[in-house]
Amino acid sequence: MSVTVLQPVDDAAQPVPTEQVTAAGAKGSQSSLPTTLLVAYAATIMVIPADVVFRPLGGAASVAGVVGLSLFALWWASTLLGNHDPLRARYPTRACIVALWIITLLSYAVMHHHARPSTEVLGADRWLMQLAQWSGVAFVASECLRELADIIRVLRALVWGGAVCGVVAAVQFWLSYDLSHYLRMIPGFTLNVSDWAIGSRGGINRVAGTAMHPIELGVVAGMLLPLAVFLAMHDRQKPVLKRWIPVVLIGTAVPVSVSRSAVLAAVLALGLFVVLLPVKPRALAIGAAPIALGAVFMTAHGFFGTIASFILRIGSDASITHRTNQWPRVEQLVRQSPWVGSGGGSFIPPDAWHVLDNQYLQTAIELGIIGAFLVFLYLVAPAASALVARDRAADEEIRVLCGALAGSSVAAAACAFTFDGLTFPMFAGVTALIVGLSGACWVLVDRTYRLQEGES
């Protein structure tokens, strides 16, 4: 693999006309190796279940994980060989990732000063590999997607991958048949045992699609919805029907997951996205909402009743009381190492009853209070940077894209309170891609903004 193709947005490069920078479908534009790898990552994180792994690299080496590690290696090799200068591209989310690396390495060093069970050490090693994957995706996306056309290519792969996941989930829900079995037949990769495919809740099927759990499926689908709607609105190279099919299929994954977290993710992601839309599209979106709810009511029989029953008895619901009953135990574990934790990935619940279902609490145990705060920044920073980039952008297409990324990021940060999201590969991988795409938008807008300032 040649590393010379990894090139950042160069501040010293010749000025690029604004209309060329923002041309999403520029004809003749060819994908670079980083863009191609990001497209492969976006597709595989949604389509290939993460329990299919490359055994020599361990449980974190899913198909998408191997692509993510390749991106990290490509970024480092190009940087060390002088073919890529990451400091030429400035974006705020990079500081969050670097800070997360610092606290992770501190925690990793501290944990090895004490005798620890081998399972915890392996968990910490796996966390390092996962953080390398996320960093590779975020850094390469932020620094090497030079045009909006490149961002669109990656988004297409992510959204259509989500559509495939939605098809698998729909078949599981309505036909009780698991198509994901065929997506696990990858030469050279072996299958870990998957806990979920088709379950039941409230008397109806509760499915996971190609995700590891129905909650992960629903939350990721909710996060993808504004991005799918953005493409449906602005990817005008594609026919209208082809642009809106992924929206329907991804939207289907939200109710069939039968998850309150999925509803929360969809409401937050789409809500913020719609609020940030221009007036006319906003009015159309608000008018279309009752139609979408009616379609869910007609097709996913029992969904509204099941979700309503879980919401109405939220104070006595077993899944809620299970979470709150864990708080004294979490406090006790955090007190053992309050600042740097016991090591990233070292919290290994002995059974399902001891799963915390809260990423921030789990991170407080593993990386300390500082680490929990940094994870929150990592999840919410893409929203903040996307909103700032949106405010500075003059092009409506980029402004709408920034609004979609902000909605996805807010949904991810909120749902990390309701399940331990970073232990689920699809959620973690999509989040890393959103971090990277928000960084790419920041760099793109900043370059255009400074160009306009220079011309004036």
Number of contiguous helices: 17
Unreliable spans: 8-29
Beta-strand portion reads under 5%
How many domains make up the 3D coordinates? 1
- Please give the share of residues in helix: 55-70%
Secondary-structure element order, N to C:
HHEHHHHHEEEHHHHHHHHHH
Distance between the termini: 42 Å
Radius of gyration: 21 Å
Q: How many beta-strand segments?
A: 4
What strand order characterises the main sheet? 1-2
Sum this structure up briefly.
By secondary structure, the chain is mainly α.
How does this model look, in words?
This protein is mainly alpha-helical and 456 residues long. It has one domain. The chain has 17 helices and four strands. The chain has a two-stranded antiparallel sheet. Strand 3 and strand 4 form a beta hairpin.
